[in-house]
Amino acid sequence: MNELGSKRPKINPAFRTDVQNSVLCWLATVGADGTPNVTPKELFCCHGDDRIVVADIASTISVRNIINHPKVCVSFVDVFRQRGFKIVGSASIVAPEEVEFAQLGAELLRMAGGDFPIRHVISIGIERVSRIWAPSYSLFPERTEQERMQSAYSAYGVTPIER
Ligand SMILES: Cc1cc2nc3c(=O)[nH]c(=O)nc-3n(C[C@H](O)[C@H](O)[C@H](O)COP(=O)(O)O)c2cc1C
């Protein structure tokens, strides 16, 4: 992400890759009384070069919070490469009857494959971005990506399938 000299950070290839390799994102919102709320969302993707979209399938509290208070924080990590990003942004709720829904929701609808009805698109304009690294990146900087992935497979009891 290019943060310098730009009010709105732009999505770069590293960000896009980590979004694609993250099974879930965690969407944090704030309730009217200031109560924090954070829940996982599987259906999320980049939209254009400055926006993340998330499918509201069953996210009643997140949607209600955003309507009252649009500031959100989203984090996601590629658990095998042990890295990801955190963004802060302003979210809006887009209903299916609104004109932007088709364009904003196209990729989410493709990902949902008809199995999961999307009630709204949660559209998040990215305002700030920061990297998330596992501590092993600073503790063991000499490790290769392959070694990090092997270590994660072993920690999580995962056997990768050759593709
Ligand atoms: C693995 C997993 C993936 C999920 N993906 C989504 C999703 O993409 N969209 C969604 O609306 N809810 C998703 N959920 C369900 C919400 O996290 C869940 O309904 C939650 O209670 C909603 O909380 P909220 O009302 O505070 O947003 C997922 C849950 C799990 C466990």
Overview of this structure, please?
- Residues 12-130 form the Pyridoxamine 5'-phosphate oxidase N-terminal domain.
- This is Pyridoxine 5'-phosphate oxidase superfamily flavin-nucleotide-binding protein.
- It comes from Pseudorhizobium tarimense.
- InterPro entries: Pyridox_Oxase_N, Split_barrel_FMN-bd.
- The chain has 163 residues and is an alpha+beta fold.
- The protein has a single domain, classed as Electron Transport, Fmn-binding Protein, Chain A (Pnp Oxidase, Chain A, Roll), CATH 2.30.110.
- Helices cover 28% and strands 34% of the residues.
- The chain is built from 5 helices and 7 strands.
- The protein has a 7-stranded antiparallel beta sheet with strand order 2-1-5-6-7-4-3.
- A hairpin with a 4-residue loop joins strand 5 (71-78) and strand 6.
- It is globular and about 50 Å long.
- The mean pLDDT is 95.
Main traits of this protein?
163 residues; Split_barrel_FMN-bd; Pyridoxine 5'-phosphate oxidase superfamily flavin-nucleotide-binding protein; 7-stranded antiparallel β-sheet; binds flavin mononucleotide; alpha+beta; Pnp Oxidase, Chain A; Pyridox_Oxase_N
Task: Give the distinct bound molecules.
Answer: flavin mononucleotide
SSE pattern? HEEEEHEEHEHH
Q: Determine the CATH topology.
A: Pnp Oxidase, Chain A
Helix/sheet category = alpha+beta
Based on the coordinates given, report the CATH architecture.
Roll
Compute the number of structural domains: 1
Q: What's the rounded overall pLDDT mean? A: 95
Shape: globular
Tally of DSSP β-strands? 7
Distance between the termini: 30 Å
Rg over alpha carbons: 17 Å
**Which CATH class is shown?**
Mainly Beta
| pLDDT < 50 stretches | none
Q: Largest beta sheet: what is the strand line-up?
A: 2-1-5-6-7-4-3
**Helicity, as a percent range:** 25-40%
What does the largest sheet look like? Answer: 7 strands, antiparallel
Q: How many alpha or pi helices?
A: 5
Q: What is the CATH homologous superfamily assignment?
A: Electron Transport, Fmn-binding Protein, Chain A
Could you tell me the strand content as a percent range? 25-35%
